[in-house]
Amino acid sequence: MTHKDLIIIGGGPIGIACALEAKKKGIEYLIIEKGPITNSLYNYPQNMQFFSSSEKLEIDEIPFISNEVKPKRNEALEYYRRIVTSNNIHIHLFEKVISIKKKDTTFQAVTEKNRYTASYIIVATGFYDLPKLMNVPGEELRKVSHYYRDPHFFAKQKLVVVGASNSAVDAALECYRKGADVTLIVRGPEIGKRVKYWVKPDIENRIKAGEINVFFNTTVKEILPDKILLNTTKGEVTLDNDYVLALTGYMPNFSFLRSIGVQLSDDEKLYPQYNNETMESNVENLYLAGVICGGMDTHVWFIENSRIHAKTIIKNIVAKKLK
Question: Residue 143 pLDDT > 80, yes or no?
Fold first, then answer.
């Protein structure tokens, strides 16, 4: 069984930032990541462009130079990958953490490949791995996906995109421009207010021109192999359909947090309990970092405003070790 002072669960930007800070302070650490480096970013749509400018995505004051002010997915992958490789960050990839148990003052972490012990744990697992399900009949069909990668696949197909956020709007526009017959299903009365400001006029104009069909105040009732049934303000509507992109959002792995002992709020937000000044959870010596701190409010924390978590956490760990 391998022992480390610190185990960081999650090899995304914030997990990497924590590792860099631990390395500077002489703390023996290990990142355990269930996929490739920055797994969530890797699974973003291939042509995705960030809302934030490149300097706001920087970690440890390492310059991030992009072709445009707002970088794209491939540039971010290159940036974070080079940080990991050039700084010889200790990271185990494609190794999923199954459980973490605390015995006295030591954590025991079991993965698919190994067992570890650690004095401190940082959970920086993000939120992109668990989609918010619609919970409708037919959602399990192969024609339905909660992730979108590339528009070429949907060319000449009848595509329904469910959602009104950036991911849904980007997918609808890209697939329309590659020749898909796109219908957008929006639960509310309008396109989401947080849609990127340079994209929102585009989707609104495509809808106004009739180039992308849209149903507002609408939910999906059922998905069939060749059709989709909708609940609209005018009653049930049936559309011929080849594929469904249910881009209805994602959420942290709350069951994993509960299994560790992290307490969550009783309301629908499911905010995890932690100290704002140290990022330490209600479980002593177990810290939370990044978007996971926002519970269901996954838009509250992101790379540019949670980078500080790394310094905050490592500072607290160093203080404890000096006692």
Answer: yes
Say how far apart CA 144 and CA 183 lie, in whole Å.
14
Tokens for 50, please give them.
């960030």
Buried b (16+ CB within 10 A) or exposed e, 112-150: eeeebebbbbbbbbbbbbebeebebebbeeebbebebee
Could you tell me which residues come within 8 angstroms of residue 34 by beta carbon, excluding any fewer than 6 positions away? 94, 95, 96, 97
Indicate whether 1 pLDDT > 80.
Answer: no
Residue ranges and CATH numbers for the domains of the chain are: 2-130+250-322 (3.50.50.60), 133-246 (3.50.50.60)
Q: How far apart are the first and last CA of the chain?
A: 27
User: Pairing state of beta strands 219-223 and 97-103?
Assistant: unpaired
Give residue-wise pLDDT tens across range 194-205. Answer: 898 889 999 999
- Model confidence pLDDT, tens digit, residues 277-286: 999 999 999 9
Which tokens belong to 209?
A: 């021109």
3-state secondary structure string across the chain: CEEEEEEEECCCHHHHHHHHHHHHCCCCEEEECCCCCCHHHHCCCCCCECCCCHHHHCCCCCCCCCCCCCCEHHHHHHHHHHHHHHCCCCEECCCCEEEEEEECCEEEEEECCCEEEEEEEEECCCCCCEECCCCCCCCCCCCEECCCCCHHHHCCCEEEEECCCHHHHHHHHHHHHCCCEEEEECCCCCCCCCCCCCCHHHHHHHHHCCCCEEECCCEEEEECCCEEEEEECCEEEEEECCEEEECCCEECCHHHHHHHCCCECCCCCCCECECCCCCEECCCCEEECHHHHHCCCCCCCCHHHHCHHHHHHHHHHHHHHHC
Classify residue 186 as left (phi > 0), alpha (psi -120 to 50) or beta: beta
pLDDT digits (tens, 9 = 90+) for 7-40: 999 999 999 999 999 999 999 999 999 999 999 9
Average pLDDT for the chain: 95
